[in-house]
Each structure stands twice: as C-alpha cells, then as structure tokens.
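Our consortium's second objective concerns turning raw sequence data into structural hypotheses that experimental partners can test. To show how far this objective has progressed, the report includes one record in full. It was chosen at random from the queue rather than selected for favorable results. The single chain below, 217 residues long, was entered without modification.
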Amino acid sequence: MRSALLVVAAALARADDRPDVGDHAAFARYMVNRLTWATLSTISEDKEIKGYPFGNPVSIGDNATGTPYMCVSPLDASVIDLEKNARMSLTFSEAQEFVTTAACDPAGGDPENPPCSRLVLTGEFKKVDPKHEEWAVAAAALKSKHPAMDGWGCFGGGAMSSHAFFLAKLEIRQAWLINMYGGPAVVSPKDYYAADAPLPAKSAATGRAAAEATATA
C-alpha cells in the first residue's frame, strides 16, 4: 500500500508538468526535455549486418532548447555508422520513467498503450564545433543530467579522454509522436521549435512526503 501511494504521489507531482496531449509540438519538446536517454537508430556499417537498422541507447540533454545533444566516442558502433551515413533517429518512451502516467505503469499499463507516449525524432547527426558558442549550450545541457560525463572527457580532460569523446546533436527533420489514441501526429521542425519551452521540472518530494504521512497515519 505504501509503495503504491508513493508511485501515485510521484505521478501527480509530474502530471502538472505535462502539456495538453493535443499540443503535439509542446508535448514532443516536453519529452525530449524530461527524458535522459533515447534509442539511437542508424544504418549499420558492420559487415555482418551492413544495411540493417541498428539501435543503441544514448544519453541526451537539451536544457529546454529542444535540440537533443549527446556525448559520443568515434569508437562507438553507432558513431561508426554515422560517419558513413549521418541519417539517424532518436526514440523516446514515457515508459522509461513510467511514473509520469498510469498508462506506462507495468501494473496496469504498457509501453505500446498509446497514452504511454512515444516520440521518434528523425534527422541528421551533426558534430558540435568546440569553437562555436553552441558548444557551451550543449555542454551545459549534458552536465545538468549526466554529471558522470565529466570523467569521460566530454568537456575536456578526464580519465577516458583516450576515447576521444565529443559533443554532437540531432538536426531534426521530423518529430513523430503518439500520445493518445487515434494515430500519430507528425510535427515539422518549424512547429517543434516554435512551441513553448517546457516548464521547469517539478520535484516529487512534496507529493512523496504527503504520501508517506498518509501511509503511516
């Protein structure tokens, strides 16, 4: 009972952050901002599966800009693919953080349930020039969600600097979203970036404290 109350409290604390499901561009921006990783899909260059799709988790951050930034190594299989063919997609699911909605909760929902929102961003892989002012934006976006990257050498130095990590981004050509029954919504880059930036994430601490008090009462 107590654990169920905590899940509900966390869900309620975050429900107020979610845009209206009919505001597709804002909802896509919300998902990119709230989720910390996505599945990066490429066309494989591996000789055994050359030409087939290949999916690989990648950590992302956008710092409310809408642009998904990442820190990757040229040794990574996905990056090897992207050096040959820059076309890629990033797939997000609210099931990655199911307490945002009951539709994703394994107890009664499912990742394929349309209200358990899913988003696919498709476009081209682009390196972020360390000499350009955008590099600082990308670094801030990633540091805020992935502090461990500092030790990888993503931002200079680090124990794993031999892996030559660098900052990159997805240059979006299309956003494909399902967040309710009735089929997908296709959002253009123009509409996506014109949408309001997501509100700052609300902490679930207050709701959690209230649920704990109720559980122990």
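The partners drew two points from this record. The chain has one domain: 29-193. Helices lie at 2-15, 24-34, 77-84, 134-145, 189-194, 205-216. Both points have been shared with the crystallography group to help prioritize constructs.
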